[in-house]
Amino acid sequence: MSTPETPTSSAPLPVTRKVSPVTQVVAIGIGAALFFVLSRFVAIPVPVPNLAITFQYAFLAVLAVLYGPYVAAIAGFVGHILADATGYGIWLSWEIPTAVFGLIVGFFMLRNRVNEGEFPRRDLVRFNLAVIVGHFVAWGVLAWILDVTLMGEPFDKVIVQGLVAFVTNAILTCVFGSIILALYAKTRTRSGSLEVGA
Questions:
Q1: Which of 53, 55, 139, 184 is deepest in the core (most CB within 10 A)?
Q2: How far apart are CA 147 and CA 29, in angstroms?
Q3: Per-residue model confidence as pLDDT tens digits over 88-141
Q4: Using CA atoms, how far apart are residues 133 and 154, in angstroms rounded to an integer?
Q5: What stretches pass through the bilayer (predicted)?
């Protein structure tokens, strides 16, 4: 007599970004608005010019996981422009890296099962690696290069800004992004968890 097979979570990781264009536009709009609010009104000043500790990149990383790289890149870019336009002034050398960060995290996490209620340790590690790489490329490399070449800023000033932004953003995004994704996954119905009784 054969024993019924027990469902496992070894199914291939789906590309969960296949959402309708309407959903993508809505996600971009809401994402840009929340990025703006978190950037402008939830900020802790630090003793480095034009920098503050903020939480919008944790939200942007979550957006990248749930909706993919392009939604995150556009939402982050637009939200950052809105925040800068009402604050320091538009600064493309930092708004472009925000879009790049969204792209990197989104592509790193293109395959996941968060919407299916699964966020295992391997995905947690992959997410944190994506965040660290994304912030390093954005702020540890790209931002200060663009500041010097595009905006004519002094190297010694922007290299400090870039490194501080990389460290603070990476820590905050890893911690809060991981918590948000873990909690969100728990609210979803896990694949194979519902069975019809015999």
A1: 139
A2: 28
A3: 788 888 999 999 999 999 999 998 999 889 999 999 999 999 999 999 999 989
A4: 25
A5: 22-43, 55-82, 88-112, 124-146, 158-184
Exposed / middle / buried, residue 122 (Cβ in 10 Å: 0-12, 13-18, 19+): exposed
Three-state secondary structure call for residue 52? strand
Q: From the CB of residue 45, how many other CB atoms can be counted at a distance below 10 Å? A: 8
At which residue do the structure tokens 């609210």 appear?
187
CB 127 within 8 Å of CB 109? yes
Q: CB count, 10 Å around CB of 88?
A: 11
Query: How far from chain centre, in Å, is Cα 114?
Result: 14
Q: Which of 73, 75, 74, 34 is nearest to 55 (CA)?
A: 34
User: E strands, the chain, where?
Assistant: 43-45, 52-54
Tell me the residue type at 188.
R
